[in-house]
Write a structure and sequence with these properties.
This is Cysteine desulfurase. Strands 2-8-7-6-5-3-4 form a 7-stranded mixed sheet, with helices on both faces. Strands 11-12-15-14 form a 4-stranded antiparallel sheet, covered by helices on one side. It is 38% helix and 15% strand. The chain is of the alpha/beta class. The chain contains 15 helices and 15 strands. The protein folds into 2 domains: 156 residues, Aspartate Aminotransferase, domain 1; 268 residues, 3-Layer(aba) Sandwich (Aspartate Aminotransferase, domain 2), CATH 3.40.640. Helix 4 crosses helix 11 and helix 5 packs parallel to helix 6.
């Protein structure tokens, strides 16, 4: 049996040891209550191993990577490239298919930029030396980009802007009244003009995991490229990106116990090779003359300037930490099991409150570890404020998914999102806070 099938939630002793690795969990809030952190979907907390790795880099290795010939620069470069290899291995990929960016938003913008730049080359009839004009990245007026109605703005607005620049048309897979992707609509949405299919692996509002195989199959039938927003899946599920069949995927370090300021774009090597660079300048070049320049191969051609070396080192430590949470590197499977148990507990309790509406799938088996909900006749901001008074940190608003909230007929929602460090008493704290909300707003 696989490690995923054998995975179990953390025992009380394991969880206590794990929580001790996160210094911030020992603090109190302004109300004097212990911190109950339930906003990992926005950003995760960091274990000491990550904090120490980043600080140690600055204390002992700090130098500009891929530049100097001195010892510090060599050591810094080795650390940076070791981080690339570790992150790639975490998602089942070879190192040369991982590009470091600032965050997943930049990664997705990089991909959208590849289409607009290649389209401009094709329209002009020329391209920089060494840059191939790959027809997969050329958009004509009337070509189509398919997203879903559940997308985070980071996987929606770049495509809207690309359509505005090229004359392409944005289409979307609708969401049902129950907050489920209506994949039966694919047959009428995917056609010969579809050039891109872009979607979230797991919704940051609905929690539902997308039917990746079905979406990929629909794209493959028409030769469209598949772009995956993996921000809410990579930290919480065992993910093998190449095995999913997608072409490109984006995720962020700060959501997977790593530092802010470092993100990842994974792409199949031949797809990355076909894409033009996003930012230009130092490090990403091959040869520079006054008349023209040629560019380094991927992934270096996408990493202009001095990269985020310390943050990448911190992300390496986060990957190692997550792997070590289970035997033989199966830690993410343990995280999935642990968070699913907490999600099932929360969903079960919320189902007993008729004045609470849960958005998305009602079964924890169909979700990652987050739950967004509304409280009858109470604005999400008021819910969040009262929970904050109890020391409970949750996310309120439209969670950068404004069109989805409109579709579901809600102004805003309250979102609980779990990390590996959460415990059953955190669920209890949410429920106590919600009952207080009900009393105060009755």
């Amino acid at each position: 049996m696989t490690a995923e099938l054998l995975a179990a939630p953390f025992s009380d002793a394991e969880l206590a040891a794990l929580r001790a690795d996160f210094p911030i969990l020992t603090r109190s809030t302004r109300s004097g209550k212990p911190l109950v952190y339930l906003d990992s979907g926005a950003t995760s907390q960091k274990p000491r191993a990550v904090l120490d790795a980043e600080r140690r880099f600055y204390e002992t290795r700090n130098a500009a990577v891929h530049r100097g010939a001195h010892q510090l620069a060599e050591e810094a470069t080795d650390d940076f490239e070791a981080a690339r290899a570790a992150v790639a291995g975490f998602v089942g990929a070879p190192a040369h298919e991982v590009v470091f960016t600032k965050n997943a938003t930049e990664s997705l913008n990089l991909v959208a930029h590849a289409f607009s730049t290649t389209t401009a080359y094709a329209q002009r009839g020329t391209a920089p030396a060494g840059q191939v004009v790959d027809p997969r990245f050329v958009l004509a007026e009337g070509d189509e980009i398919l997203v879903t109605e559940a997308e985070h703005h980071a996987n929606l607005v770049p495509w809207q802007e690309l359509c505005a620049r090229t004359g392409a048309v944005l289409r979307w897979v609708p969401v049902t009244d129950g907050g489920i992707l209506d994949v039966d609509a694919l047959e009428g949405l995917v056609g010969e003009r579809t050039k891109v299919v872009a979607f979230a692996h797991a919704s940051n509002v609905l929690g539902g995991v997308a039917p990746v195989a079905r979406l990929v199959a629909a794209a493959r039938r028409v030769g469209a490229l598949v772009v995956l927003d993996a921000c809410q899946s990579v930290p919480h599920l065992p993910v093998d990106l190449p095995a999913l069949g997608v072409d490109l995927a984006a995720f962020s370090g700060h959501k997977m116990l790593g530092p802010s300021g470092v993100g990842v774009l994974w792409g199949r090597a031949e797809v990355l090779d076909a894409m033009p660079p996003f930012l230009t300048g130092g490090s990403m070049i091959e040869l520079v003359r006054m008349e023209r320049s040629t560019f380094a191969p991927a992934p270096q051609k996408f990493e202009a300037g001095v990269p985020m070396a310390a943050q990448a080192v911190g992300l390496h430590a986060a990957v190692d930490y997550l792997r070590a949470l289970g035997p033989d590197g199966s830690g993410v499977a343990r995280v999935e099991a642990h968070e699913r148990a907490l999600t099932a507990r929360l969903l079960g309790e919320l189902a007993e409150l008729p004045w609470v509406r849960v958005l998305g799938p009602q079964d924890a088996a169909d979700r990652v570890g987050l739950v967004a909900f509304t409280v009858e006749d109470v604005h999400a901001h008021d819910v969040g404020q009262l929970l904050d008074d109890e020391g409970v940190a949750v996310r309120v608003g439209h969670h950068c998914a404004w069109p989805l909230h409109r579709r579901l007929g809600v102004t805003a929602s309250t979102r609980v999102s779990f990390g590996p460090y959460n415990q059953g008493s955190d669920v209890d704290a949410v429920l106590r806070g919600l009952h207080r909300v009900r009393v105060l707003f009755a």
